[in-house]
Amino acid sequence: MIAALLLxxxxxxxxxxAGTVTRGQGAALYATAALVTGLSxxxxxxxxxxxxxxxxxxxxLPWLGWHFRLDALSAFFLFVVDLGAASASVFxxxxxxxxxxxxRLLPFYPLFIAALQLVVLAxxxxxxxxxxxxxxxxxxxxxxxxxxxxxxxxxxxxxLLMAVLSGFALLLCFGLLAGAAGSYGFDAMRLAHPAPGLAxxxxxxxxxxxxxxxxxxxxxxxxxxxxxxxxxxxSALMSGVMTKVAVYAFLRxxxxxxxxxxxxxxxxxxxxxxxxxxxxxxxxxxxxxxxxLLAYHTVENIGxxxxxxxxxxxxxxxxxxxxxxALALTAALFHVFNHSVFKSLLFFGAGSVDAATxxxxxxxxxxxxxxxxxxxxxxxIGCAAISALPPLNGFASEWLTFQAILLxxxxxxxxxxxxxxxxxxxxxxxAALAAACFVKAFGITFLGRPRSAEAAAARExxxxxxxxxxxxxxxxxxxxIFPAVVINALAPVARALIGTTMPAQGYVPWSxxxxxxxxxxxxxxxxxxxxxxxxxxLAIAGARRLATHAVRRAPAWDCGFPNPRxxxxxxxxxxxxxxxxVFGPAVFGAASAVRMPxxxxxxxxxxxxxxxxRIWDIFYAPVARFVDRLATSADRLQFxxxxxxxxxxxxxxxxxxxxxxxxx
Amino acid sequence: MIGAIAIEALQMALVLLAAPGLVxxxxxxxxxxxxxxxxxxxxxxxxxxxxxxxEVVLAENASWLFRTAxxxxxxxxxxxxxxxxxxxxxxxFAPLGDLIVITALLGAARFLLALAGLDIGTSFGGIxxxxxxxxxxxxxxxxxxxxxxxxxxxxxxxxxxxxxxMLSPASGLRVSFALALVALGIVAxxxxxxxxxxxxxxxxxxxxxxEAMVLEYSGRHLAMIELAxxxxxxxxxxxxxxxxxxxxxxxxxxLVGLFAYAxxxxxxxxxxxxxxxxxxxMRVFRVPELLGAGLMLGLLGTLLLYxxxxx
Lengths: 664, 311
What we know:
The complex is a heterodimer. By secondary structure, chain A is mainly alpha-helical. Among the domains of chain A are: about 270-500, no CATH class; about 615-664. Chain A has helices at about 1-20, 25-45, 70-95, 110-120, 125-145, 150-180, 185-190, 195-215, 225-230, 230-255, 265-285, 290-315, 320-355, 370, 375-385, 395-405, 415-445, 455, 465-480, 485-495, 525-545, 570-585, 615-635, 640-664, and strands at about 55, 65-70, 550-555, 590-595, 605-610. Chain A has a two-stranded antiparallel ribbon with strand order 1-2. In chain A, α12 (about 290-315) runs antiparallel to α17 (about 415-445), α15 packs parallel to α19 (about 465-480) and α16 (about 395-405) runs parallel beside α19. Chain A starts with a helix and ends with a helix. In chain A, about 55% of the residues are buried. Chain B is mainly α. Chain B is built from eleven helices and one strand, in the order ααβααααααααα. Helices cover about 70% and strands about 0% of the residues of chain B. In chain B, α1 (about 1-35) crosses α9, α6 (about 160-165) runs parallel beside α9 and α9 (about 220-245) packs across α10 (about 255-275). Chain B is globular, with a radius of gyration of 19 Å. Classes of the chains: A mainly alpha, B mainly alpha. β3 of chain A pairs parallel with β1 (about 55-60) of chain B, so a sheet runs across the interface.
């Protein structure tokens, strides 16, 4: 099985080489990639329940080789990777036509997917870090596809810096895990028992390294720059899949390689997740670039996933709460799957809109539901799913996360007792704000009247793009109305990491999920779906029977003063204004000022409003200033004579020897 | 099982039929307190019948979303109402979802209505949708904090289990429940757009929130929306009654439960009428402070529960 999967990865590498000589838009390349990753997804799904398999290839470091391992955790994440990659490839068969310079994109796209697959299959620190850095570099090249765009250049630069930070943190983490013996295989790390202090430090480094890739606040700043800059099918891969691979890396280190960490570490993860969720969605609400809005929502959803992961760590530290830990972890993994599906779908929709109107600015869209009806319908499903509306999949996983939160007060310690309900409040706030944000995203982009000539002349996307979106929308609905199937499929992963699983779901009756006990809570997505369908049919039938059927088309009413100019509509900015006024001063340091013309003047009144990213001010600006100052003061060393340089070499040698002599 | 299905069917018919009547009672109480004659109690029914008889006037650029939203909004609200124990806890649909699912179903209805408000592209639709989602973004977390308080006390988020717990002597009198009741009251006012959050009777454009959002609707579409709004009022009052005043729910038979439920709704409607007459509407940007207070009360209720455990 694992050999077949690696063969698929090798095929993708071969495809990357073929991409260097491909002329044209690469439809054949995308189709092949879709085929390979689709098969790989099926294999991964099939090996979810099989026992762990390993494989060693005589590559890489001569005394180590490349170790690969396929267990339940990597099989699940491999499935997420392949599903995202397959749908992105199908989408790209049509969407790729809109790319101006496909030769800058085609070699790196299959390479990126291959790297993603390698990360989840790696079984030693060397091959893991190699694959991790390959993933970073390939995606960096993809961010810079539109290299003439100033924003892309800045995004690529910031992304590269953060990728270096992430790689460094993980390198140090594995260094600690390898211990004095220097055994870089994951097998040896599992057996080693590092001192508690070292283990905690390794875990925090892993949190920094993987969080910087996943987009955890405060190391999220690169994400909303880099993800939108890439072509849309790559954005979908970066947001939907690469962030999940980072979650995989954290789970692998925290739950598999390290011994059970103390509960305060879990609380740190939980608190970071909760803050990330709320800040991510608040930033998203303030955007009017559709793809950047989606990228900030990735930050939010990563927060929700880390809430589940943190809860699982807290529960796992308590010997009596293993079942609750399994519930929290299952909820997090369920959300991993869901987010990869609906975020890919939403990025595909945003890409189609971008291709149809030539801009990602929501303030220039509007009324697209008339001209792009299929895209609009599937995008609406994605919006409802990410806003956690029943009966779609986002609700099922957030509901499960909430059920895990409600088990928190059962813990004996006071820390979790107080932190967990507060995290619950923040999760609820994030979910409610997400709904507000997607009313805005869909309402301003697809509803209303066109705000530009391009939006008025938009055309529906091609059938491959629409097909990819339709398939993912169907998955959103299916996973939402049959959550029991997904939960049962995740049981092997929970058993591998926690040692126990959630109770098997969906027996009496077969569609209901009962996380703990029937008297405590239950949710039946399929029955809710049927009930909604039946009740809607009843309402329509009742209206047909009781009401007149007359319909008249007329100008909008608008209280008697309809104004045909599209500028009179609400814009993305004005829609978010109330929420900015409520949260803005505290979170963004928002300020707005209205300048009225003098009385009698017909000049327009002007409003000026400003937002600041406080995280940037607090965490990034000081570091940047420090590095700047260091660089300026090091500048003096640049133009010295050779004699002086030699003196520096000599002096540092003496200093090192002295230090060695003193410490021995 | 047959009995549970019969009770469920009775409840679903009952809530739909009773909802406009409840609105009628609130209006009558308000009219009497303002020394007006007021419309008769059946006026809301007449209004729905009249709207059904009128033709639909659709804006020229209305999309399919605008035309289907009213039915879906009614469906989501009705589905939520089918899970709430009103006069009996033996409901066939009770295992479909807990209090969180009910909150989310109402959230879905609001999501659709806010989108419909944006569909025509008028400024009033936008102002209504934007303010509605702002209120909701604070009211929903407050609601979920109330759920957390109740879930810690009763060990369940199922409404029937919570009602059973409240009826049992184990519940006792707790400060947390009082805080949760106040918070739930605030959430209920905001969810239904009642004074002081929004004024359901206003026709002054700049003060409208819910009414601005549905301004473009007419005919049978508007009838569905009015019915859904009345149903939502009944639903939220039923949730309060079910959690904090569950008398008669587990009683000797459904008949006692029915009488108790009618009495509870009547009292709630009268209290709502008195409350609305005695208070002024707030400025829009005062409302987040009120809802924030609701959220904090919910959180405080949760934390006090630890302190008061065993009291």
